User: What shape does this take?
Amino acid sequence: MAHTQTRSLLVDVARQLFAKNGFENTTMNDIATASNKGRRTLYTYFNSKEEIYLAVIETELERLYVRMEEVARRKISPEEKMVQLIFTHLEVVKEAVYRNGNLRAEFFRDIWKVESHRKIFDKNEINLFRRVLAEGVEKGVFDVRDVRLTSEIAHFCLKGCEIPYIFGRYGLNNAEELYPYVSHLVIKSLAKSSR
Assistant: This one.
């Protein structure tokens, strides 16, 4: 337990320093000092600043997945779950990017490093979409021929919306204004027709 707590503390301190000073301007010494741990302790958990940076990214992705999993477990309609999963994803990614200040620039400058560590999250998100889509098919509200493929398409479409959403490029002031458009798109594209 103490091992996990120490590692979490180091990751959180590093995240705060990266957010405040940027990745380049933060040293392992800075992280050790700010966490009230020695360099030896820091190097017990992480071999390099890059390794702790990747742990920060993984922690942010875990936070996102936990929030999405909460949505998937709600007792609401499959249509509403899909819409809320989309908004939860977009909002949590936006929160993470803005909460991390100077780390934002690092995140967007080295997006491929982030991508390489996103694979587990991406797989888990696709599985969440698959569960909700299968639930909708089972309840007779979704007309989806291939749940696996549709869940992957939903995931990659959502991923493509992240950066425009973070930078407010949809021409709307907030998520509430975007909600009816996303809801309409989800329901029209997935709902069983009344033919």
In short: The CA atoms of residues 62 and 121 lie 7 Å apart. The mean pLDDT is 86. The longest helix spans residues 49-73. The chain is about 75% helix and 0% strand.
